[in-house]
Amino acid sequence: MLSNEFPAIETPFDYRNLCWFCGEPKFSYFQFPQHLTFACPHPPLAVPSCKECQEIANKLEEDSIWKTFHKVKAELIKQYQKDLAIGINWTEQELAESQFEGGNFESFQRSAWMMYEIAKGRVNFKPWRLEIAGIYASDYEIDLGFCFDGVNYPTVEHAVNHYAKSFKLNKEFLRQLVAVLGEGEFSYAVRLCRIMIDATPNERAAVIREVSAKR
Predict the structure, then answer these.
(1) How do residues 71-100 score in pLDDT, each as one tens digit?
(2) Helix (H) or strand (E) holding 213
């Protein structure tokens, strides 16, 4: 139930039944803030949300709806890590041509790419601007963060966590490589980590020194 204290943002017609956080069907409204905050750059408001995003947002104590948005996205990436990893390990054609027979493998073949597309769509969804009664509640433009292989991550750190977990890589080694190589060489950093997945600490340190010397 909405109150005058938390006016609902205006919603474009094409988004009228969607969650502001992820684009899934709307369940209710998330009212912000739900806690004491002193530095919020926008007035109290309510955004449409699906049940899952609302449950995540209710647990957060950020000082703006935008920071809440990024934390919700980060949690979605964490919860749907296995679904997002499908797009890392397979292409749609490879799944279609795979020879899985019977049981869970056959079910995986039928639904895997759809699960990946749904998870990616939710993570990549860009919310519409905050407007109340024809007036923008905030001029803040959403930062899509770090985009890699078709998926938007809140930060490159979230991408590092996701790939380290998906490929069972040494996370600190991957972080160091990305720091030295730069975000634009994220793919190369992942490949190096995969090649050296069984490397010793001394071998990883030697690679970091070699890569740094070439920059």
Answers:
(1) 999 999 999 999 999 988 877 787 777 665
(2) helix 201-213
Whole-Å CA distances, 29 to 18, 37, 111, 127: 11, 20, 30, 14
Q: Which class for 14: exposed (0-12), middle (13-18), buried (19 or more C-beta within 10 A)? A: exposed
* CB distance 167 to 159 below 8 Å: no
Across residues 154-181, what is the average pLDDT?
94
Helix 156-167 crosses helix 186-195 at what angle (to 10 degrees)? 30
How many CB atoms within 10 Å of residue 80? Answer: 19
For the chain, the C-alpha Rg in angstroms (whole number) is 21
Q: Which residues of 158-187 are buried (b: 16+ CB within 10 A; e: fewer)?
A: bbbbbbbebeebbeebbbbbbebbeeeebe
* Listed residue (141, 139, 137) closest to 47, CA to CA: 137
How far apart (Å, rounded) are the C-alpha atoms in residues 196 and 189? 11
7 upstream amide cis, omega within 30 of 0:
no
Residue 144 tokens read as: 């899509």
- Candidates 89, 71, 74; CA nearest to 160 is 74
